[in-house]
Amino acid sequence: RSDITSDYRTLADRDLDILGLLGGERSFGHSYLSFTWEPWKVLPLFYFWLRRNGVEIVKRKVNSFSDLEDECDLVVNCSGLGAWCLVPDQNMVPISGHVLRVETPWVGSVMADSREDSWAYIIPNRDSVVMGSVDTDGNWNTQVQEGDREAIRRRCDKLCPGVKVRMSSYFVP
Helix, strand or coil for residue 48? Predict the structure, then answer.
């Protein structure tokens, strides 16, 4: 929403042309100032702060929220797909998603293309860039499918020419 983001603006045709996105029936874009949090870096800081401020953190398997009624003032539900069994919510289905983390230090801005035929995003983090994605509704398989990496690389290179990198620069933090 443009009313809650900082430095929001609609991209002009010249901006879209520079990005190679001018033309077609849906040529428009937006720019705004934002930030990203890398969970594997920031969560330990949150846990430290919570413990320092007297919050007891308990990790355990819960079969029903009613199991917690007499024990907790607050429950933070981080069950994800586990909600399928916990609630139970038969409408909860996985969307398998695969992304690439690459070393491309020259990329400093988030970019995204939401068109169905060229859907892609590039999100710079501190030590890497996240390129994505492949999302398959209803797919419980967590394994990377043949062609996923190349599809992500092809779409992201179209979104930001020059972002394509050698396979050797992929890494997992």
Answer: helix
Q: What is the pLDDT of residues 123-142, one digit of tens each?
A: 888 888 899 888 888 888 87
> Which ranges of the chain would DSSP assign to H, the alpha helix?
13-18, 39-52, 83-86, 148-159
The model carries a pTM of 0.69
Res 2: pLDDT: 67
Burial zone of 131 (CB within 10 Å; 0-12 exposed, 13-18 middle, 19+ buried): buried
65 phi, psi to nearest 5 deg: -65, -25
Q: Within 10 Å of residue 168's Cβ, how many Cβ atoms?
A: 7
Closest C-alpha among 128, 140, 137 to residue 100? 128
The amino acid at 149:
R
Those residues with Cβ within 8 angstroms of residue 63's Cβ, 6 or more apart along the chain or in another chain: 86
